[in-house]
Predict the 3D structure of the following.
Amino acid sequence: MDDEFKDALIKVPQVTLVFWLIKILCTTIGETGGDAFTMSYLGETTAEANPNGYLIGTAVFGVVFLIAVALQIKATKFQPFLYWFTIVATTTVGTTLADYLTRSNGLGYTVGSSILLACVIGSLLIWKFVTGTIDISSVSNAKSEVFYWVTIMFSQTLGTALGDWFADTADLGYLGAAGVFGGALVVLALLLYLTDISRAILFWAAFILTRPLGAVVGDFLDKPYDKGGLALDRYVATGILLVLIVGFILIFKQRPAEKAH
């Protein structure tokens, strides 16, 4: 198998500014889309009103996630729309799963975030142990892809709980929490350019942090005024974000990540 064919098997995009912008939009739509289904469509405004709402949402989005990952693994080349659809699938299932664990299941944001952080770290460590690397340039076979998407799913779930913790438990509000996560991403960017810290570690740290950023931005868009939000209709907010995501994918051509040599 020649190098050109090997490179064609890498089905994740290069990490560029556009990648991070689309990622944040996808994490935001995961929040508004997940809430639209569990809160608006299923009529759940609180965990007590419909304790099974988040669980139903997790089951539905979980099936979508599994189908998307199967299609992504089966694909023979990088397909931008399929890749980002799979990312959105991880954010929606992450939203409903985190809400089920922290709200319906009563774990709370602190305990829930701690458990999910352990899941993310555990997934990365096992991935590193089994394949020898967690660099995205190694995601060129089914085994690495499974680890990649499982890690992403856990990170998206963690991000929802972490966003809620900063916004509610720490009482920073949605904009305050967004400022914290935005600032943390700036620090990571500086570390990227000013230090020799592992690029793979910095990537996953940034990947994790973009999720709570999108989560609190999504909450800011669709939560009521009295809770610090803009009270936008969840379906409208989700539709606008979807248009932006599709627009970015169409306008900015993305290339697959280069294979490490």
